């Protein structure tokens, strides 16, 4: 049995940093793992806030324990650091602060890398199955010797699960991260694994997340999952919550490229938490893999049309793009405005190529979402033609700056405020943009400007811009 094909499932019922440290240290020892050189720990901090998004990220206690275990096992250490790129346009500084990471990182004398603030390094992709021949990674990722992956065990509305493989989406800055974040999302996840793989994985499954990625419903699983191969770890993770590993498309792709196993009989599963016992505990674990045209009921304020999508491999639906952005956006709105859908004006959300009449009501606004949206017909007696602006192969974003992006989207909403329809660009649209459009045309409070978010977000944004400018200057002057 290949040592890389061993996975440990350990019991851990509470977020006790010392207990977590001991479990991870013992796991490293059993798997023969000894960190060295430049050691980088990558948690999942897609979005963090103790009140608004308390279950979306790798907990600080878990990071605390992992840092302690890594330091205890390490040899010939040059640096121990923690790095991440949070959700699109959201300053990682904001999420780290809300997750409680800075105090933990300081406690262990580690270094912090906010990936969007660091120089970006081109890396050749040698896998012939990859979408692109080159990817761009933050310098701390490209230059680390020992990458430790610390995902949060969560369901995901676009990829079914986010475990070790999916967590690597957070190693790219916005301009490159949105590239292929559409029907090619599963391919992109596999491609990232072709570029760089972790040498150790420890998944925070003490409290797992159900349904969504940003506002997940907590599920007490009481486990820590460890291994040295992402495919093996994710295969076991699938079985832990009754998912066929072949239904995790990015896992299937990565395994077919020879990056690891996808069959349980090729993996040695051990630890003090037997897989059968875990499966009994997770019988009620919930997912949210529903098409938007089936998710929203017929009597609600939002109705959807999902037409035909441009890429041959996924004509019927774009799981990684604008449809999923709507689901995440509405869950955020529901979290902050529980009765929002009762207050909203009617909205028709249209994605892909839509043929035939839309049968729009007079008080209903149509949002044609995403670059690939197209339609020719009438809306309230007015002839309308929406042409697809989708570009095959994708392209790097020129800018995805939080401030300029918000201003541009809000100006577009204001300009079209009296129109029965609006064309919303993006491939894909970001969740924040969808919130803007739903708020503007649904005539409800814009939760992007919640006081718990707007002030600390903008403070973090200003600090990020200043640090990014200094980083560029230092890189230009050869400071490293």
Describe the 3D structure.
It comes from uncultured Desulfobacteraceae bacterium. Pfam families: DUF362. The chain is an alpha/beta fold. It has two domains: 5-282, Rossmann fold (3-Layer(aba) Sandwich); 292-391 and 398-449, no CATH class. The chain is built from 16 helices and 18 strands. It has helices at residues 17-31, 60-73, 92-99, 101-107, 139-142, 174-177, 185-195, 230-240, 249-256, 275-281, 292-295, 322-336, 340-343, 402-415, 431-442, 451-476, and strands at residues 6-11, 36-43, 75-84, 111-114, 120-124, 134-138, 146-150, 152-156, 160-162, 200-210, 217-227, 268-270, 302-306, 347-351, 365-369, 375-379, 382-386, 421-424. The strands form four sheets. Strands 1, 2, 3, 4, 7, 8, 9, 10, 11 and 12 form a ten-stranded mixed sheet that branches. Strands 13-14-15-18 form a four-stranded parallel sheet. Strand 10 and strand 11 form a beta hairpin. Helix 1 (17-31) packs across helix 2 (60-73), helix 7 crosses helix 9 (249-256) and helix 14 (402-415) packs parallel to helix 15. The radius of gyration is 22 Å and the shape is globular. The mean pLDDT is 94.
């Amino acid at each position: 049995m290949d040592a890389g094909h061993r996975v440990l499932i350990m019991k851990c019922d509470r977020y006790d940093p010392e207990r977590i440290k001991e479990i991870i240290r013992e796991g490293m020892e059993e798997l023969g793992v000894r960190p060295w050189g430049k050691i980088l720990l990558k948690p999942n901090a897609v979005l963090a806030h103790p009140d608004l998004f308390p279950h979306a990220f790798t907990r600080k206690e878990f990071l605390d324990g992992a840092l302690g275990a890594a330091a205890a096992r390490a040899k010939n250490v040059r640096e121990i650091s923690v790095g991440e790129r949070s959700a699109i346009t959201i300053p990682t500084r904001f999420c780290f602060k809300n997750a409680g990471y800075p105090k933990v990182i300081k406690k262990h004398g580690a270094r912090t890398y906010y990936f969007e603030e660091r120089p970006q390094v081109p890396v050749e992709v040698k896998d012939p199955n990859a979408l692109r021949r080159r990817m761009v990674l933050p310098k701390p990722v490209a230059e680390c010797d020992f990458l430790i992956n610390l995902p949060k065990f969560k369901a995901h509305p676009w990829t079914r699960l986010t475990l070790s493989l999916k967590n690597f989406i957070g190693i790219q800055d916005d301009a490159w991260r949105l590239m292929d974040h559409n029907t090619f999302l599963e391919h992109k996840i596999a491609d990232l694994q072709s570029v760089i793989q972790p040498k150790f994985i420890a998944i925070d499954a003490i409290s797992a997340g159900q349904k969504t990625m940003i506002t997940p419903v907590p599920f007490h699983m009481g486990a820590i999952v460890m291994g040295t191969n992402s495919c093996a770890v994710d295969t076991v993770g699938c079985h832990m919550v009754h998912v066929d590993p072949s239904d995790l498309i990015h896992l299937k792709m990565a395994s077919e490229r020879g990056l690891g196993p996808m069959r349980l009989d090729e993996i040695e599963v051990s630890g003090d938490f037997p897989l059968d016992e875990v499966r009994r505990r997770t019988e009620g674990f919930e997912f949210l893999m529903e098409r938007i045209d089936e998710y929203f009921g017929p009597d609600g304020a939002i109705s959807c049309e999902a037409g035909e999508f441009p890429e041959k491999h996924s004509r019927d639906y774009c799981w990684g793009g604008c449809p999923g952005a709507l689901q995440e956006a509405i869950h955020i709105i529901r979290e902050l405005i529980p009765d929002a859908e009762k207050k909203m004006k009617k909205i028709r959300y249209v994605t892909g190529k839509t043929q035939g009449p839309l049968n729009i009501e007079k008080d209903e606004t149509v949002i044609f979402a995403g670059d690939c949206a197209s339609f020719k017909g009438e809306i309230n007696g007015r002839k309308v033609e929406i042409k697809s602006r989708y570009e095959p192969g994708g392209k790097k974003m020129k800018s995805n700056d939080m401030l300029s992006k918000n201003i541009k989207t809000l100006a577009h909403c204001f300009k079209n405020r009296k129109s029965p329809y609006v064309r919303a660009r993006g491939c894909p649209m970001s969740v924040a943009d969808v919130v803007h459009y739903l708020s503007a045309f649904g005539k409800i409070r814009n939760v992007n400007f919640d006081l718990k978010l707007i002030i600390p977000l903008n403070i973090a944004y200003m600090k990020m811009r200043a640090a990014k400018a200094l980083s560029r200057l230092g890189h230009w002057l050869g400071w490293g």
